[in-house]
Design goal:
InterPro entries: SseB_N (IPR009839). This is SseB family protein. The protein is an alpha+beta fold. The protein folds into two domains: 121 residues, Uncharacterised protein PF11572, DUF3234 (Trna Endonuclease, Chain: A, domain 1); 100 residues, GMP Synthetase, Chain A, domain 3, CATH 3.30.300. The chain is built from eight helices and 13 strands. A hairpin with an 8-residue loop joins β6 and β7. α1 runs antiparallel to α2 and α6 runs antiparallel to α7. The radius of gyration is 20 Å and the shape is elongated. The two termini are 36 Å apart.
Length: 264
């Protein structure tokens, strides 16, 4: 399939390894994080949207596409839509017994996500880990970390654009004698700690590691332990946010995470 998207690649990997739970998790992670184009019945009115609901023998589904041109190819004519993240769309229809039709009409890429699958995804996304209650007394370069976890962090952390300057991953020993691994976020923006903690948990869950554990802590650049971590830890740099665009006359539905669109 030419011009494959991350969702295409994850879907193909899931199909090629149907008994591989990790491949299934990566697909749902891609779906949650992606910007998806949701087909509407009519143009949005401010923050209010009315998605097109399709009745099928398998139930009711909304249709989403990971490229605008795929939506246009499916409808065969200009059609109203709104661009939202997969997680926002899943939240909009939570508890309504409605599933998602993903990339219908795309050969080798179309998929139906049932309401039960969406409920599972939302439960996974809603969980957040607790912040570490103590700072370590010893830090060392992490050893024997599963590739699945490192790959999951590589996928997840760059999506948190501008929320912190970097993150350090290290093996640590606490005063109590407990040992483990710590992900330390440096200079997190005001109000970003919950989002970063949830991103860490999602990376852990979507890595497919059973009973995995990863402590999270938030540090300033001038914290003494930050310098120690910088010498031994694996470092994840965060992308710089893009320059702010010129103010628009009106925001598109769903662009403000504190004001999600409203179904009507």
């Amino acid at each position: 399939m030419p011009n494959e998207t991350p969702i295409d690649l994850a879907f193909a990997a899931m199909g090629a390894a149907q008994n591989d739970e990790a491949a299934r998790l990566v697909y749902f992670e891609r779906l949650a994080d992606a910007e998806l184009f949701l087909l509407l019945e009519e143009e949005a009115e401010g923050e209010r949207i009315k998605p097109e609901v399709f009745e099928t023998p398998a139930g009711q589904f909304l249709l989403v596409f990971d490229r605008e041109e795929r939506l246009s190819a499916f409808t065969g004519k200009p059609a109203p839509f709104v661009a939202l993240s997969g997680r926002v769309i899943a939240n909009l229809i939570q508890g309504q017994d409605i599933g998602l039709g993903v990339n219908l009409g795309v050969e080798g890429g179309e998929n139906l996500i049932t309401p039960d699958m969406l409920d599972w995804l939302l439960q996974t996304l809603e969980h957040a880990p607790e912040e570490a209650a103590e700072l370590p007394v010893e830090v060392a370069r992490p050893k024997a970390l599963p590739d699945a976890l490192l790959n999951a962090l590589d996928r997840k952390l760059p999506t948190a654009v501008g929320l912190a300057s970097k993150a350090f991953l290290a093996e640590v020993t606490y005063k109590s004698g407990r040992r483990g691994h710590l992900l330390a976020y440096l200079d997190a923006k005001l109000g970003a700690q919950e989002a970063l903690a949830k991103a860490t948990n999602e990376a852990l869950v979507f890595s497919g590691i059973d009973a995995g554990e990863l402590d999270v802590v938030f540090l300033r650049s001038d914290d003494p332990i930050a310098e120690r971590l910088a010498r031994v830890a694996l470092v994840f740099d965060f992308p710089e946010p893009a320059a702010a665009p010129e103010p628009a006359a009106a925001k598109a539905p769903g662009t403000d995470p504190n004001s999600p669109p409203i179904l009507r």
